[in-house]
Design goal:
The protein has one domain: Multidrug-efflux Transporter Regulator, Chain: A, Domain 2 (Orthogonal Bundle). 72% of the residues lie in helices and 0% in strands. With 118 residues, it is mainly α. The longest helix has 39 residues. Pfam families: MerR_1 (PF13411). This is MerR family transcriptional regulator. InterPro entries: DNA-bd_dom_put_sf, MerR-type_HTH_dom, MerR_fam.
Length: 118
């Protein structure tokens, strides 16, 4: 698929896709004889994973580190696993904090609801 189709399918702007390619997150995107990028399933799976890391709060620097290790090949599997495990642990702590905030809000809402006169 071309840049426009890929952008629409992933929800990532063409500008961002070019930026990701420039900084090394998207590597070796195949090109048509015309020079236009041709995105396939491999790029779709990879960008989906990048978006998941972003949405779970991994900084771009961490995603780039993961991408660099991925580009080095199988010998970096344990390093990639460690990076993802560290991110998972941070995400778990973030979720716990957010759950505590949610509980506090729920308690405050309940307080207001219980004070209403019917």
């Amino acid at each position: 698929m071309n840049m426009t189709e890929f952008s629409q399918r992933t929800g990532v702007s063409a500008h961002t896709l070019r930026y990701y390619e420039k900084i090394g997150l998207l590597r070796q995107v195949p090109r048509a004889p015309s020079g236009h990028r041709v995105f396939g399933e491999k790029e779709l799976v990879w960008i989906t994973f990048i978006l998941r890391l972003k949405e779970t709060g991994m900084p771009l620097e961490g995603i780039l580190q993961y991408a660099d290790l991925r580009a080095e090949g199988e010998s970096t599997c344990s390093q990639r696993q460690a990076l993802l495990e560290a991110h998972r642990d941070q995400l778990i702590e973030h979720i716990k904090t957010q759950q505590a905030h949610l509980q506090a809000l729920e308690e405050k809402i309940y307080l207001y609801q219980s004070q209403k006169v019917s």
